[in-house]
Design brief:
By secondary structure, the chain is of the alpha+beta class. It has one domain: Nuclear Transport Factor 2, Chain: A (Roll). Helices cover 23% and strands 38% of the residues. The chain contains three helices and four strands, in the order αααββββ. A four-stranded antiparallel beta sheet has the order 1-2-3-4, with helices on one face. Helix 1 packs antiparallel against helix 2. The radius of gyration is 17 Å and the shape is globular. The protein starts with 12 loop residues before the first helix and ends with a strand. The structure holds zinc ion (ZN). Zinc ion binds next to loops.
Length: 185
């Protein structure tokens, strides 16, 4: 594994692990509500095109895959490499979530459980072109809304429940290039 300081002298492993989890949750919420803008913001064009195709397919079939109640179990970096001016970080992220499918025709559930959480382990690949600067991010540890001071639950809502201000993960310059499910219980 290369030295993370090659990415930036400000690179902080634990904070990055939290940020990676936040972004993964962002992506899953965006997937649930077919929010293409969020997917485009955090995914490479390769991954975005795959997801866009899959979501449009679901749209045609009038199906919605809803994921909610995310809880972080583990997030760790498994490798960091540099190749062809690209920084590549591979991570293992384990979380529990509610995951089910509904039909948009009658809002009835067609697959999965609305009450029983599942545990999923992902292998997620983040990449950043080296000419794009690594940016610090601020909010992963935030317990209070920076706008109104109300307590916030950043893992379950990406907005403040009190003042409704959006609290999305800050960009770091890294984008998700690949998401693989390693195990699903
Ligand atoms: Zn607020």
């Amino acid at each position: 594994m290369e030295d993370f300081k090659q990415i930036s002298p400000h690179f902080h492993k634990e904070t990055f692990c939290k940020w990676a989890y936040d972004v993964l949750v962002c992506i899953e919420k965006a997937w649930s509500f077919k929010d293409f803008d969020i997917l485009r913001r955090y995914e490479t064009s390769t991954l975005y095109e795959i997801h866009e195709h899959q979501l449009n397919n679901m749209k045609k079939r009038e199906v919605q895959n809803i994921m909610s109640d995310f809880e972080l179990l583990d997030s760790q970096i498994i490798s960091y490499t540099q190749e062809n001016h690209i920084d590549k970080i591979e991570m293992k992220i384990q979380l529990s979530l509610i995951d089910y499918f509904i039909s948009l025709k009658d809002s009835k559930k067609i697959l999965g459980s609305q009450s029983q959480s599942r545990i999923v382990e992902y292998q997620v690949t983040f990449i950043k072109e080296q000419n794009i600067p690594f940016q610090q991010f601020i909010y992963s540890d935030l317990k209070e809304c920076p706008y109104c001071g109300a307590p916030i639950d950043i893992y379950n809502h990406d907005y403040c429940e009190y003042c409704k201000q959006e609290l999305k993960a800050e960009d770091t310059g890294f984008l998700i290039d690949k998401i693989e499910i390693i195990s699903l219980i």
